[in-house]
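Protein modeling request. Please complete all fields; requests missing the sequence field cannot be processed.
Requester role: graduate student
Desired output: 3D structure, token encoding
Chains: 1
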Amino acid sequence: MSDPASFAPLRERALGLLARREHGVKELERKLVAKGADRELAREVVEELAARGLVSDERYAAAYAREAIRRRPRARRLLVAELAERRVPAALAARVVDETFAEAGVDDASLALRMAEARAARLAELPPEARRGRLGRWLQSRGFAPALVVETCARVLGEPSGDRAPEASAQPAEGTLLSDLVVSNSAGLGVGFLTHPARRGATALELEIDTAEAVRQEAEYLASELEARLADRGLTDLRVEARAGGEIAVLGAGGGDRRAVAEASRELPVELLEEGGEGGELLLSLGAEERAALRARVVSRM
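Delivered output (302 residues):
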């Protein structure tokens, strides 16, 4: 074991992070390293905590899935892919997400319907084609399968689904990320259906979906970085999470925390919004230049 004089303080820092929320094994190790810890020492600390059951990929994956169901539902395969990106073993992620869905009594179809019904009410003033297109794109951005998107749009908008069913096509492999998928227009939705794996030429919708995925991933990274910076300033009671559309929320913030958040995020490509958060929240958003850079990066790969 490493020098106890170095091990013990880092272990306490790790326990402080775990006291705030569950972490995955690799996520916790990465956070400790991001705060300046030696990589080998961080690994040793996390392995000791894992051996004692104090950090667990299984508990982390379950908490992540429950939070997703409660706050921002998305498709099973997207949740599994997100957990895999966070270095949770794919087989474990898939099993835990399935168990969490079963415990909550939900599946992709029920989540898609719940979200679509809420979203459709906000699109009521649009013409039918525009409403169908917006709703379809929105569901697709949350990882739902093409056939389910067609069925859900038809059900929510009161249209027959039989005439709009897409031609059969191969479904993406389990765990495929949105940024790896391609769009082919189908079913009259005004949106593309995701097919895999070969690109057939970039479309405007493909660019939109890939850019949205790039924004999501960048927001996740920046949320983690901001949380680490706030912890370094002693604000370990604040939790930071990425939201849809490139927004980042600082939870548990009081009126006096705004300046600290502004200082911690000063060198990050984000903007602290004047308003928009609920009680105890501060909201930030990816800056315009960062969004443009992400979009340009996506275009360069097409």
